[in-house]
Amino acid sequence: MKRWLICMAAFALLAFAQRGAARVHAESGPVSLHVSALPEGVDPAAAAVTSGTFDAAFKPIKSDDLVFVKSVARWYRLQLQADWHERSLPLLVIQNARFQPVTLYAAPEFQPISQYLAQSGRDPRFSRRALVFELSRNLGAAQSTYLRVPASTKRTPFTAEVYSEESYQAADIGWARLMTFFEAVQFTMILVGLTLWVALREKLYGFFVGYLVPQFLYLMVSNGDIYLLPGGQWLEPWGIRALWFVAALSTPFALSFLIEFCQMRRIVPHFARVLSWLRMPWAVLTLTALLPMSVHNGNSLQADIGNMLYLICGAVAILAVVVAWRRGSVAAGIFLLAWSPQSVFTALRAGQLLLRVPLPTWLEFGLPAVMSLSSLVLTLGLGVSTLQMRRERDHARDEAQHDALTGLHNRRALMVRIAEALTAARQARQSLSLIFLDLDHFKIVNDLHGHLIGDACLRIVAERIQSELRPGDILARWGGEEFVVLLLHTGRDEAETIGERIRCRVDSNTIQAGGESVKLTVSLGISGFAGAGPESPEQLIEQADAALYRAKSDGRNCLVVHPTFAATA
After folding, report:
1. CA distance 548 to 534
2. Which terminus of the chain has a smaller tally of CB atoms within 10 A, N or C?
3. CATH number of the domain at 411-568, please?
4. 486-526 pLDDT, tens per residue?
5. Which fold has domain 2-9+176-399?
């Protein structure tokens, strides 16, 4: 049932993302453009370009061929195919520029206007999904708009399209709503994980929070929303290194969480060791991302290494989880369900960056959607894991407090209950009694009939004793053939009455066990507290044991009250 609910949540979230992406894409239809470019390596002064001196050198290209060129800056000229007649302003929208600055020279002044993702002071009317430049309302088909894009380490495609302000804002609001929803899901799951970690102090939840926080920050940085927060301007000089840092930081926490959550050290120890070692290069990438950009020499080797390493780690992690799941790990099955879609989309995103191909809309929206889905499913998985841990803890505690043979309280649990009862009786000025029982000549039963018959006799005797007790009375196995009964709010006379009923009940009927008939009797010693007397559980037990010894000396199958209890009662 849980898996069906998780699958339904997954399909609902992905369908929501797909529907939103389709609506955003449909509402933002661009107008047609003529695109031309100067030859690669030709980078004249801006004044010469905007004056029209190099117009003849611009050669038509397809709109799909807009790229940041390796090692050199490049100029592009954009022209509408028809005069602008819309009511709202035309907007030039540059997508997939990421952290690269783009400079616009637009009619009539041709003043340079530069924008980039991390830039502070951007127009608050638009999200940071793209770089948005306002163009003249009177823009005609013959007028040229020039773009200068800086040199890049590798050829990276981008798009340049013109939209009406009204249509783009409608699409941009839809995009912002979707991203806010995904970020809200991520942030909520972080709060849940943080609450569990603070409350339970389990390292599993610490790894979970350590995995989600950088992932959430990655989403915020890549969307540009982090630069809108108070203090976000301090990240502006970091540029793309901020994205490298949070991406590299998230993965070792993800691997640590995977190892702990799926209990890989126990189920698949070889994979656990491999995944542990794979955290090391990520630690190095995290530290190197902090170095100034001059150390990186402006190249994207850091990102390429990270993307390739992620593909390797993802393949190993998925294989490890599948093996753990096949070996019976429920947590591995949950993790596989949560992480597989994210791994696929992240691998596709890494491949898109490595191959320098345009970012498709389905991947742009699909990746944050599956990231949110993953955090949601993993949080549900943590809940399941917490319930399982609680059951195991309760079971272990129950086993530690009960006798395995009879199911009664054991000596350790009994001593705790006696201590609590003595304290309560002393404060309330009430009585309590304790009966120490020992089966007579039980060693002969084991010698004649064997220990299996003896164990069966002990279980039957325990049932007979329990049948003579009242609700609230506590029966425990002290050890061997010895039992102890703790009688709360009970004086000597009532304790003697109960003890005599127990003695008669054990003596009255022959025990049938394993096809053998066994006759048993029991000796009993009684001690207690009646406003004065034993000060500790050990003294109470010692007095009851002494009374029991006296009953053995008096011929067995009888009951003796300790003189101290008899006097105080």
Report:
1. 17
2. N
3. 3.30.70.270
4. 999 999 999 999 999 999 999 988 888 888 889 999 999 99
5. Rhopdopsin 7-helix transmembrane proteins (1.20.1070)
